[in-house]
């Protein structure tokens, strides 16, 4: 850990120790089911988090209090349909419908203006589509180890879908039904998002991991991991982008380098809030 990140984390931890903001949990009805939200109330531009495939909003818990202390922002996490405490309507479930339902729920909660997005893994696809249906409202973002159209091509997504065993499909349908529907439509979602990723006009920080371990149970290879890493770096070097490499980290970067993730989210957020989009 560098000295600057270490000192930043110490200051944030001291602030968190002295004042713990309240987290409000709320179920919001959208159609025939509810989405579960957890909100830490703050001021200014709200920060919306999108988790990776199969994860609910609780995955962000370790960094929320420090982020609130460093930004003062309202922090919004939620469980996607069929995950955590959120329900799912099997008659109208689709990738596009999930984001429409999220949009409706946020409006019911009073968040219908501008947003700052934080996404991990496949959450980058959800965050990107959210930005597409809310043109001009997403003011900035931090993407951590996200999926991109560059690495989620037809060959990869079809291979992943076809490699999942019958037993695992059954387990997913019983215990992770939201993930079941996403993976069952994995190639179609990737094709749909191939031209709908986050616009270059939105200031973005991309955070990459150090270690990339393939999961052979779903057909991943070492080449897939190399492609993932290269695609992330490519995304981070586009205009209006910044790429942050981390050391000693895995896919969930904040588990081993929380100080870096907290600092980079805070920097991008505060820069966007002040109207200075480009990195200094």
Give me some keywords for this one.
11 helices; eight-stranded mixed beta sheet; 280 residues; alpha/beta
Structure description:
With 280 residues, the chain is of the alpha/beta class. Helices cover 44% and strands 17% of the residues. It contains eleven helices and eight strands. It has helices spanning 3-18, 61-71, 95-108, 123-133, 154-163, 166-175, 177-184, 186-193, 222-236, 253-256, 258-273; strands at 23-30, 33-40, 47-50, 75-79, 115-120, 138-144, 204-208, 241-245. It has an eight-stranded mixed β-sheet, sandwiched between helices. Strand 1 (23-30) and strand 2 (33-40) form a beta hairpin. Mean pLDDT is 92; it is low at 276-280.
Rg: 18 Å
User: Roughly how much helix do the residues carry, as a percent range?
Assistant: 40-55%
- The overall pLDDT, averaged over residues, is 92
Number of helices: 11
Shape: globular
């Amino acid at each position: 850990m560098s000295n600057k990140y270490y000192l930043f984390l110490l200051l944030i931890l001291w602030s968190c120790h002295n004042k713990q903001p309240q987290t409000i949990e709320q179920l919001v009805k959208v159609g025939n089911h509810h989405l579960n939200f957890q909100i830490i109330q703050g001021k200014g531009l709200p920060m919306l988090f999108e988790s990776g495939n199969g994860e609910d909003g609780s995955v962000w818990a370790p960094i929320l209090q420090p982020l609130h202390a460093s930004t003062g922002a309202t922090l919004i996490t939620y469980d996607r349909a069929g995950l955590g405490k959120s329900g799912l309507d099997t008659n109208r479930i689709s990738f596009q419908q999930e984001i429409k339902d999220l949009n409706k729920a946020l409006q019911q909660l009073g968040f219908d203006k501008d947003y700052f997005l934080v996404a991990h893994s496949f959450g980058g696809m959800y965050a990107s589509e959210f930005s597409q249906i809310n043109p001009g409202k997403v003011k900035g973002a931090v993407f951590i180890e996200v999926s991109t159209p560059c690495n989620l091509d037809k060959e990869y997504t079809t291979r992943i879908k076809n490699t999942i065993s019958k037993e695992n499909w059954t387990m997913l349908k019983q215990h992770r039904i939201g993930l079941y529907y996403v993976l069952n439509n994995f190639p179609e979602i990737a094709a749909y998002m191939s031209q709908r990723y986050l616009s270059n006009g939105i200031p973005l920080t991309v955070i990459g991991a150090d270690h990339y371990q393939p999961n052979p149970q779903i057909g991943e290879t070492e080449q897939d991991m190399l492609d993932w890493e290269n695609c992330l770096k490519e995304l981070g070097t586009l205009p209006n982008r910044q790429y942050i490499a981390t050391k000693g980290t895995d896919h969930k970067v904040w588990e081993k380098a929380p100080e870096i993730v907290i600092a980079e989210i805070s920097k991008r957020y505060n820069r966007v809030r002040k109207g200075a989009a480009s990195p200094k």
